[in-house]
Amino acid sequence: MSQFKAIMWFVGRSTKRVVVTIVGAVLLVAGLVMIVTPGPGMLLVVAGLAVLGTEYLWARRFLARAKQQTAKIVRRARSARSVG
């Protein structure tokens, strides 16, 4: 019985990873396309990275770096607005 549980766990885990990869990749590619065409490109890129980040460390790191860069840009914009 434990071998059956192990097989079912593997199938379930693999299925989840495949679904997350497909959904995340579709969101990421659609977002990249929408950066140069009308649409919420950056929103879909972030959503795609967030979905991929549930399974892949590289996506989590990239998303964290994007958040840091965004925070830096916001701080600069706020300081420029308050000075001017």
Description:
Helix 1 (2-36) packs antiparallel against helix 2 (41-52) and helix 2 (41-52) packs antiparallel against helix 3 (57-83). This protein is an all-alpha fold. The longest helix is centred in the first third of the chain and has 35 residues, at 2-36. It has helices spanning 2-36, 41-52, 57-83. It has one domain (2-83).
Keywords, separated by commas or semicolons:
mainly alpha; 3 helices; 88% helix
> Major sheet, described briefly?
none
Based on the structure, what is the oligomeric state of the protein chains?
A: single chain
Structural class: mainly alpha
Give the strand tally: 0
* Tally of distinct domains: 1
State the low-pLDDT regions, or none.
none
Q: Approximately how much helix is present in the residues?
A: over 70%
Q: Secondary-structure element sequence? A: HHH
Give the overall shape, derived from the CA principal axes: elongated
Total number of helices: 3
Radius of gyration from CA coordinates: 19 Å
* Strand residue percentage: under 5%
Give the overall average pLDDT: 91
Q: Give the termini distance in whole angstroms.
A: 71 Å
